[in-house]
Amino acid sequence: MTRKRFGIDIDGTVTCPTSLIPFINEDFSLNITLDDIRQYDLSEALNIPAPHFKEWFDEKEPIIYANSPIAEGAKDVLLEWKEQFQLFFISARKTHLLQITEEWFNKQDIAYDKIELVGSHDKIQAATEHNVDIFFEDKHDNAVAICEELSIPVVLFNTPYNQDPVPEGVVRVDNWIQAKQWVHDWVSRT
């Protein structure tokens, strides 16, 4: 039997969605929490001019990614899944961050079949190339597009910034334990 292939976003999914907040608070003299972020575009959410925020993010990105905490429950679930499924981590990170990303995965002791940094939020081509059967995401429009374009289920990790309605086929979960349960049920049905 062929092992199912999982496409998994990294930031805000495998890493804790609060990863950027300490850096934002320090560098922009803010005192925000995840609950304060109601949209994915942080420059807009925080009322910081987009060019300024992009410059800041480009500079801080390697430090943030090297130090991102892992999402609660992710490690145990991913270690268990590695025995049963193929894991393809597909991220919008830029390709020059591959070494930092691989080092983070090694430090966290998370095995993978492939890490692909696509450099944009459009993950459909990579998901298609890796022939994934299901995708895990935190960005609302990515989840919807992947589900609709590829006709595969997408597990969307709930955050304050992704609360727009979702179509059938996009399943919301609050944590990795719920994702694991949903996947168990889904595998039983397929």
From TrEMBL:
Protein family membership: Belongs to the 5'(3')-deoxyribonucleotidase family.
Source organism: Bacillus thermotolerans (Quasibacillus thermotolerans)
Keyword match Hydrolase: yes
Record keywords, A-Z: Hydrolase
Protein name, as recorded: Nucleotidase
The protein's Enzyme Commission number: 3.1.3.-
InterPro entries on file: 5_3-deoxyribonucleotidase-like, HAD-like_sf, HAD_sf, Nucleotidase_putative
Entry's Gene Ontology molecular function annotations: hydrolase activity
Listed Gene3D superfamilies: HAD superfamily/HAD-like
